């Protein structure tokens, strides 16, 4: 009788890791959309226009019906033959200083910090009408970037040439979440006008598509927190340990049945 009890205790002890390893996590995105084969809904969220801030590097070009008249208002790179794009951009771009000011040819120091690109474009156009007949201004970010860190396959800082990116696109650029990424707690860290904002989004919930933080702003940081299993692992992941214990459990049951 004692032998039977000991065998039963051994089996229960061995099977416990298997029971805990079977706990399920929701690894899907937008899980509460349901099983509809086709779903159509109005898009109410529009991306916020980025605000020009200290440290932004802008490419500003001026054109006019008279190209010769517009030429003095365009900064010409002194190293146009360089193959290093970062070097070319740093010379062609206008760096916004700590006071939100840029040094513009002929016009001098102009404050554009705190404005959207559209507002800055209008301000420059109004100033240029004193010199040109029909000035047209184009503004682009040269350092529009976002950073994705944490439990993703390829954490990095990414340049965004399109100047528009949402959370899902950013995660895609970083290779998507690993199985250890906590999908219900994605942090978006934004700093603007001396204020830091940390928003938490749940990838399991379709409501993130309407979140004001779904579209990322320049220099945003996306952080994917690891689940507890990832935090607790040392040299082996918990899943690998569970697999090994599962094999041991199965082998032990076979041995006990033959005794």
Automatic annotation (TrEMBL):
Entry keyword set: Membrane, Signal, Transmembrane, Transmembrane helix
Name the InterPro entries for this protein: Poly_export, Poly_export_N
Name the domain of life this protein comes from: Bacteria
| GO molecular function ontology, one term from the record | polysaccharide transmembrane transporter activity
Q: Give the transmembrane ranges.
A: 241-258
- Report if keyword Membrane is assigned: yes
Q: Which residues form the Polysaccharide export protein N-terminal domain?
A: 48-140
PANTHER family for the chain: POLYSACCHARIDE EXPORT PROTEIN GFCE-RELATED
Q: What is this protein called?
A: Polysaccharide export outer membrane protein
